[in-house]
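Re: the request from the purification team.
They wanted to know what the chain is likely to look like in 3D before they choose a buffer screen. I agreed to run a prediction and write the result into the notebook, where they can find it.
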Amino acid sequence: MPRCPRSEARRRVGGGRSRLVRPAVSARALGVATILVVGWLTTTPPSTARASSDPISPLLVARVPNSSTIFVVGSPTCSRPLCLGLYRTSVTATGFAQVALPPVTSSSGSLTGTLEHLVFANARIGFAVMGSSRATTLYATFDGARTWHRRDVTVSGVIESVAATPSALYLEVANCAVTVPYCQNFRVARSNLSAVHWTSTPIPQSRTSAEGSFFGPLAALGLDVWVTETGSRAYVAQSRDSGRTFKLTASPELLSVAGCGLTATSPTTLWAQCPTGMMEGFWFSGSDGRSWTYLSLRVAGTAGSYFDPVSPSLAFLTRGEPSNVLVRITNSAHTITTVGSLGCPNLLALTFVDLDHGLAVCAVSSVTYLETTATGGATWQRATITPS
């Protein structure tokens, strides 16, 4: 039976970014953010109410697609066990406006509590997934995160991943029971951006890998939807009609221990990040997934690296500990250039909006902070979250 991705360690990329269970892909071009919970990173102990001079620790970023606008989830010091705020800024991090989060509660082992995914379709419309590995709830905002509204997903199952386009919302859902070791019946649920009316389509399974297969998170662009399937062989399931029908394409290069994560940067260009045990592999396709170019950039899966595809011709990757050297990938993934260093051993987020401008969340011991660059990663400057 298909295995539930939540039961396996997954690797974070771009934007995204995860919980202690890590996501396999950045859909940074779609504004997806998933949450990284680092085992060594601990929350600030509860103390007194937050003073105006107390720092706000960034934990998650969600970029608005085709925009320099970024939403940052941060943790101020306060007297409660879990304190989180949401702040709207830009890639330059020169100003922060505090907005609202949906109702987040504490969750063991998670710095962001029950907040699992955050994605924006545009500057006003966004979605948050709240819950745990056994039950999830969807919230939507239609006013730039000033207010949030619960949405009932009529397709039963746990939300495994989420992707949004300017006109549609897609959820990867599966049935996950306490008494069954693996999740089953993986489907793509779709709705327009109102998130009210839902339809769903099963994700097809190859006969060669239906038993014990893994699925990566969703990627979507325009009318196209993609998801990887890994079992005894690797496949890409692709829909050309907004997730109504899918076809499987054999992609033997994308073998993985937990399903590869895809980022779509055009209708024909895809980037892939594939956890392969202790290491990770990176791939590029300029032929809609029919063939793949290997990036000779394997890194350790626990090294604190981050992968951020930006466009059909540009991606960034940090190499992890000890200084997170940053490389730029261009020329259809054939040219790899070292451009700078973040100077911190772990990243919780990395997102570039173009060749020059990017923002990162650095983590050192129990401290997190923002870094920005306007020089393509050659130099970085620290930014402080100071809500106006």
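For the purification team: The chain has one domain: 5-383.
Please add any questions underneath this entry.
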